[in-house]
Amino acid sequence: MPERKPLVLDGNGNVTQLQPGDTLDARAKEVDAFGMVNEDTNPIAKLAPVYISSSAHVKPAQANAPATHKVIGLAFEAIAASASGSVQTDGQITGTTAEWDAVTGQTGGLTPGATYFLDEAAPGKLRVTPPTIGSLVVIGDALSETALDLNVEKPILL
């Protein structure tokens, strides 16, 4: 049986056979985001961690109690009270340094290489130091000042 090369899209969007010397080494990337309704009386900031409060409804998450520590993701956009918006559950999520500062309380955006945790003191906030009371919830690792590898782990009661 003759060897067949895979079909690929070239730089112009045309279907062609894989050319000699080319490889198929692109990483697969999938990001999940869902539409949810903000059930809180206040707006949810872009990038704030949220939990499911009722069917298709979210509120800002907080690591101080089991009822509020089950983070499903980060708000992909600011969500006004009683309004619908997207929540990203995994993958790389980006924002401006100012948007991250509003959620982390830092200045200059994220700290590259740092692990971010759900804050136990304030709803909808992240921090770089693990909490000492409530629950430990890892949210993800900073890739740069503006990008976070979102990988929410299950809460560990402290």
- Backbone structural class: mainly beta
Whole-angstrom Rg: 20 Å
**Low-confidence regions:** none
Main sheet strand line-up:
3-5-4-6-7
Strand coverage percent: 25-35%
The best one-word shape is: elongated
- Total helical elements: 1
Count the beta strands. 14
Distance between the termini: 61 Å
The main sheet comes to:
5 strands, mixed, barrel
List keywords for this structure.
five-stranded antiparallel beta sheet; 35% strand; five-stranded mixed β-barrel; elongated; single chain; 158 residues
Concise structural overview:
5% of the residues lie in helices and 35% in strands. It is built from 1 helix and 14 strands; from the N terminus they run E-E-E-E-E-E-E-E-H-E-E-E-E-E-E.
